[in-house]
Amino acid sequence: MIEDRPRDDLRVALVQRASSLDPKENREALESLVPADQDLVVLPEAWARDFGKPGSPLGEFAEPLDGPFATELERVARERGATVVAGMFEPGEDDRPYNTLVARGPGHAASYRKIHLYDSFGYKESDTVSAGPTELVPQLELDGWSLGLMTCYDLRFPEQARALVAAGAEVLVLPAAWVAGERKVEHWRTLVRARAIENTSYVVAVGQPGPRYSGHSMVVDPFGDIVVEAGDDDETLTAVLEPDVLEKARETNPSLRNRRL
Question: Among 63, 152, 170, 229, which one carries the catalytic annotation?
Fold first, then answer.
């Protein structure tokens, strides 16, 4: 049985948009892109400034967690009465910033530095980005729900999702810039659903759109059913996470309880 505490339905918006190479443009876009009447709004990885050409230096675009981007994110979140999550670059080791998620909202100020860097499929993110620390705890408590933050390539490491869920997470929030290519959409859809099924948790996965990235932002429920899914292009989706679905899934499939380590 999951912890007995009050939970309301959680209204979630997924903002599938492409970030540009202009930090000011991306920062100013928050005002128009973050919708009202939602509890949680999720934008993609690297929203404050896109990665640019593979291997491009990123240090000059790093900002502290009280810098212009996070400050504007907090202002818009406060104005909307929502918790907003988006990706940015934060000063890191040498000239390699952290790939950081920042969450701001009423009573919320959290961040997560991406652990698993995209040294795969011909890319090498570790050349330009520093890896975050591996200590994992759920980063947000929102309306009775416990949320764990992950970023893009982290999706391919089931032990990270399991560590968050073992520590109490019921919703995995995953902003991404999932690079397009052969099999990439099917990998994305398969892995998002797998993380939901094996952890009997909601997954809120939000990516940048095509043509450079794969789109297909989606919410998957703890049974593995797709609640909403975008296509390849710009789109804003909404969904409702229901506590009854979470509870029923964890009673029907008590795999978390049945684990033998």
Answer: 152
pLDDT tens by residue, 196-211: 999 999 999 999 999 9
> Are the CB atoms for 98 and 114 separated by under 8 Å?
yes
Find the farthest-apart pair of alpha carbons in the chain and give their distance in angstroms, rounded: 50
Judging by beta carbons within 10 Å of its beta carbon (0-12, 13-18, 19+), is residue 6 exposed, middle or buried?
A: exposed
> Would you say 170 and 202 are in contact if contact means Cβ atoms under 8 Å apart?
yes
Per-residue pLDDT tens digits for 70-123? 999 999 999 999 999 999 999 997 899 999 999 999 888 999 999 999 999 999
Q: H or E segment at 42?
A: strand 40-42
Active site residue 152: yes
Q: CB of 198 within 8 A of CB of 255?
A: yes
The tally of CA atoms less than 13 A away on the side-chain side of residue 164 is 32
164-170 contacts: CB < 8 A, separation 24 or more? Answer: 164/136, 164/137, 164/138, 165/199, 165/201, 165/256, 166/256, 167/136, 167/137, 167/138, 168/3, 168/138, 169/138, 169/201, 170/2, 170/145, 170/146, 170/201, 170/202, 170/246
Name the H helices within 60-118.
68-80
The residue among 25, 243, 19, 75 whose CA lies nearest residue 145 is 243
Q: Is the Cβ–Cβ distance between 112 and 73 less than 8 Å?
A: no
**pLDDT confidence tier of residue 2, bands split at 50, 70 and 90:** very low
Known catalytic membership, residue 53: no
**Annotated catalytic, 124?**
no
Catalytic residue among 63, 74, 90, 114: 114
